[in-house]
């Protein structure tokens, strides 16, 4: 009887990786990219492709009918940058985002310190937290409708001011070009400060108590402890929140559109409402695309400083 012997496989030489192990190593390296693929596809389809299309539209004319569109160069950008309505919108947006961000910071820090103080009990803090966070619970549509009713000439605010003797006649806060911008800015401040308050409250609770004890031992008062202990410890949070708020506020559209629509007389016209009107009211998609690209560039500048600050942290 002959014995059957299995063929011997050649042993891998020194430094040579077996084929099976090599395939498994490549597969393990490709697994993370497989997990990222759906997200990358969504970003490309929903973000990259639209941005590229808008940029291409901004350099063309007659973009509604693709067959008749022609290359216009920087003509659309020149038209937008010399448009008085765009310049007014740029000015209003600068005022709107600056005042809103500063007020969000001041109010948020004041309320956060109030909620972090040891002078209030647990029940009182819980009640104040509920009251202070209420504006953040409403959607923009609800906020716009409520404040339009409150600011109406025959609304509650005019009634209270008239009762107190501050005014003699009803004031149209949203219909007066001199007051409309400040009215919508106030509403935006009211609806946005809770986010600052919560973030700064978390930062305050993360400051070690030993720092305040050491400062008290050195004989400092509450203002010196606030300036030399609280603010330096909150600096990273404050800078991050301020840059984020600048970006978010510059893109505010729903509140402005539902309260004033950019009026009266363009007194509350923002870059977002100007771009929307160019595209869907005047059907000037080329100039709307140019305005959108300008807004994108301004936002990217703010985003650059935010990312840089985060890397420094």
Automatic annotation (TrEMBL):
The chain crosses the membrane at residues 30-59, 94-115, 127-150, 180-202, 242-265, 285-307. It comes from the Bacteria. Keywords: Cell membrane, Membrane, Transmembrane, Transmembrane helix, Transport. Residues 1-21 are annotated as: Disordered. Residues 90-306 form the ABC transmembrane type-1 domain. SUPFAM superfamilies: MetI-like. Pfam families: BPD_transp_1. It is found in: Cell membrane. It is a multi-pass membrane protein. Belongs to the binding-protein-dependent transport system permease family. This is Sugar ABC transporter permease.
């Amino acid at each position: 009887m002959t014995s059957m012997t299995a063929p011997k496989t050649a042993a891998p030489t020194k430094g040579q990786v077996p084929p099976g192990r090599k395939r498994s190593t490549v597969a393990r390296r490709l697994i993370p990219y497989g997990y990222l693929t759906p997200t990358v596809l969504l970003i490309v389809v929903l973000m990259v492709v639209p941005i590229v299309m808008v940029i291409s539209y901004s350099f063309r004319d007659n973009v509604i009918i693709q067959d008749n569109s022609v290359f216009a160069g920087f003509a659309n950008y020149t038209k937008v940058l010399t448009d008085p309505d765009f310049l007014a919108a740029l000015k209003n947006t600068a005022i709107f985002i600056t005042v809103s961000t500063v007020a969000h910071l001041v109010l948020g820090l004041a309320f956060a310190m109030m909620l972090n103080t040891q002078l209030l009990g647990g029940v009182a803090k819980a009640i104040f937290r509920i009251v202070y966070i209420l504006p953040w619970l409403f959607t923009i549509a609800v906020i716009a409708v409520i404040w339009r009713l409150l600011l109406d000439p025959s609304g509650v605010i005019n009634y209270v001011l008239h009762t107190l003797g501050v005014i003699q006649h009803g004031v149209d806060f949203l219909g007066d070009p001199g007051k409309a911008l400040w009215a919508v800015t106030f509403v935006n401040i009211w609806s946005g400060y809770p986010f600052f308050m919560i973030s700064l409250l978390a930062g305050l609770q993360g400051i070690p108590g030993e720092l305040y004890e050491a400062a008290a031992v050195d004989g400092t008062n509450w203002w010196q402890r606030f300036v030399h202990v609280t603010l330096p410890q909150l600096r990273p949070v404050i800078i991050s929140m301020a840059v984020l708020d600048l970006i978010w506020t510059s893109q505010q559209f729903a509140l402005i559109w539902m309260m004033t629509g950019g009026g009266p007389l363009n007194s509350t016209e923002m870059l977002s409402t100007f771009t929307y009107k160019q595209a869907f009211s005047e059907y000037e998609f080329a100039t709307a695309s140019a305005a959108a690209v300008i807004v994108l560039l301004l936002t990217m500048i703010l985003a650059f400083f935010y990312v840089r600050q985060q890397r420094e942290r």
